[in-house]
Design goal:
It is a single chain. α5 crosses α6. The protein has 9 helices and no strands. By secondary structure, the protein is an all-alpha fold.
């Protein structure tokens, strides 16, 4: 999961012709964090990973619930640009970003939600996307199920999505 963020950051650095200069990279990360609506969400996430929170000392946006600077940065990440990848279902990039956001800052979400997001992430990363009705139904079931039942429901949903996508998705 962190790899998809780091790959985009590396490409961003190449476009800005920054290589190996920590000061330039830090300045670029600060610029991106100051204008998240002008950059891809992966670049924004990577930039935040390179900045230290002045309040809690963690990576900016990843600190504990109640750290106002991290809470603010976490909220700003949601204004970043989402561009659907070629071959992925429309809206898939939004689903990937939301799931990555939850998994990268699990302390702000229930344990059940983190589990669901973590288990769904691989299927989203290959470009599949559950129907809204399916996602809502599974979310409701997961919230009131035991851990073993949650995993079974999520595995069943993933199998259903792959089956609907056809043979190419199973490869």
């Amino acid at each position: 999961m962190d790899g998809i963020v780091e790959e985009e950051w590396s490409a961003f650095l190449r476009r800005w012709e920054v290589s190996g200069d920590q000061d330039q990279e830090a300045a670029l990360a600060e610029m991106v964090a100051a204008e998240p609506d002008r950059h891809d969400w992966r670049v924004v996430d990577a930039a935040l990973d390179r900045l230290v929170c002045s309040e809690c000392g963690d990576r900016l946006s990843r600190g504990p619930v109640g750290c106002s600077a991290c809470d603010l940065a976490h909220g700003f990440r949601h204004v970043a640009i989402e561009t659907d990848r070629p071959g992925a279902a429309p809206g898939n990039e939004h689903a990937v970003r939301v799931n990555v956001s939850v998994v990268r800052r699990p302390q702000v979400t229930s344990e059940n939600e983190v589990l669901a997001r973590r288990l769904m992430l691989p299927v989203l990363l290959v470009g599949l996307l559950p129907a809204v009705e399916t996602a809502q139904r599974v979310s409701a079931l997961v919230k009131r199920s035991s851990r073993a039942e949650q995993i079974r429901l999520l595995e069943q949903t993933v199998e259903e999505m792959v089956r609907r996508a056809g043979p190419a998705a199973a490869d």
